[in-house]
Amino acid sequence: MAERVTDAEFGAKVLESPVPVLIDFYGDSCVPCKRLAPQLAKVEAAHADAGDLAVVKVNTSFDREAAARYGVMGTPTLVLVKGGRELDRLVGFQRAEQVETFIKKALAEA
User: Fold this and answer.
1) How far is 87 from 91, CA to CA, in rounded Å?
2) Biggest alpha carbon distance in the chain?
3) Fewest beta carbons within 10 Å, which of 11, 35, 54, 73?
4) Closest-CA residue to 26 (of 57, 47, 53)
5) Catalytic pick among 4, 7, 30, 88
6) What is the pLDDT of residues 67-89, one digit of tens each?
7) Listed residue (28, 90, 36) closest to 59, CA to CA
């Protein structure tokens, strides 16, 4: 399961990460966020052996600084970051296959 990252940890775990990071901005009472979680677990598992992608979660109710930094207006919002720079984002529920396509496309265009 994706690691929850707080505002205090965000710089070290996301912005300074040596690999691209998929950030899941979520809320505890968000039903689409709960549906997205197992899809992201599949994505995370697919990249676990290669170690070529980190997946983290940011709770927008508690870690507002990180959410504000990326202008997150609704949940779930997925933001792909590489080298501290946003590559692209998706908003709303997505299936694992859609997330994988999004990641490949964004990294290819980076």
Assistant:
1) 14
2) 34
3) 73
4) 57
5) 30
6) 999 999 999 999 999 999 999 99
7) 28
With 90 as the cut, is the pLDDT of residue 1 above it? no
Show the tokens assigned to 91: 């908003």
User: Active-site residue among 2, 33, 79, 81?
Assistant: 33
Measured CA to CA, the distance from residue 25 to residue 22 in angstroms comes to 10
Q: pLDDT tens for residues 35-44?
A: 999 999 999 9
Residue 83 catalytic? Answer: no
Catalytic residue list contains 33 = yes
Mean pLDDT value of segment 23-43: 97
Query: What is the 3-state composition of the chain as percent helix, strand, coil, each rounded to the nearest 5?
Result: 45, 25, 35
Phi, psi of 79, deg, nearest 5: -125, 125
Kindly state the average pLDDT of the residues 8-31: 97
